[in-house]
Amino acid sequence: MNEILDEWMGKGFHPMVMIDSNSEITERNLNEFTERNGLHDIITTGREMEAPPSYARGKKRIDFLLGNDHIQRAVINSGALGLYDGLKASDHTMQYVDLDEKLLFQDDTFTPMPGFHREFKLHDIKRKTHFQETLQKRYEHQNIAKRVNDLATRLENKPHLDETDITAYNDLDDEIVELILSTAKRVGRVDFGYQRSADLCIAGKTIRLHKAILSCIRNDIKYTESIESLANELNHQLPDDRDEINVRQAIANVNEAWKAKRIVEKEDGERRARWLEDICREIARETGQDADKTYQAMIKCALSKG
């Protein structure tokens, strides 16, 4: 790690280290590491706060966000979430820090990519298709086609346009533009990844739930609001009486949830394969390229996920 930090700091970067150290920051090895590289615990340094223990099985804080003086000066806010908040299946708490971008990126070592470059582009086949389908549904819901035709017919038969006609035209035009922009913004925020069926999503959430229950039972702590919310979402009845379930049974439930997910994955791989085939055909239509090799590679990857 020291060599990696030396390399990137030598290039003018300011690395931020996210670490599960298995020790407190005052213990010798970690203390030597932070002093050698000029790093600070940016969660608490310069702030009147004491971060809570960062994992369920102990009372120590062993998870840290470390940065040098440049990063430390840009810290606006920092802290730690409660156990099972954020990433629900982890037995560690989530650490967070808010940074002032103007202070952080004031030099030329790194220029963040503008937000509009990270969102919706026409060459992104998946997002473009999703945009077209979503916009069509919203057009139908708002009855846009009929309203445009009705307005066009009415205006064609009038020798002169009055203020009411102009207002009607502008209002409908503004509504259409707003529908397009809001749909594009919504699609731009979507992280498609691989296509996943609803059954696979439920199977994954069920694993998370049983792992969280196991952690609560093993550490003799109450169910959190996040666990109760996930249980309600899955229509799963949490054991009210801890005598109804022990650690061994909780582990068995986790294993059964994994088995159920693997069964779903086998079918889901075939669904992803059909979906990827549609994407490849769309690419071929849009670009005129032979997408066969790409298709075969995507199919192989999709099936391997199952």
| Rg result | 27 Å
Q: How many helix segments?
A: 11
Fraction of residues in helix: 55-70%
Shape: extended
Question: What kind of sheet is the major sheet?
Answer: 3 strands, antiparallel
Indicate the mean pLDDT. Answer: 76
* Proportion of strand residues: 5-15%
Q: Can you tell me the residue ranges where pLDDT is under 50 for at least 5 consecutive residues?
A: 108-117
Report strand order across the widest sheet: 1-3-2
Q: What structural class is derived from the secondary structure elements?
A: mainly alpha
Q: Total strand count, please?
A: 5
Q: Report, as a whole number of angstroms, the end-to-end distance.
A: 35 Å
- Write the H/E string, N to C: HEHEEHEEHHHHHHHH
Supply database-style keywords:
56% helix, 5 strands, 306 residues, mainly alpha, three-stranded antiparallel sheet
Description:
With 306 residues, the chain is mainly alpha-helical. It contains eleven helices and five strands.
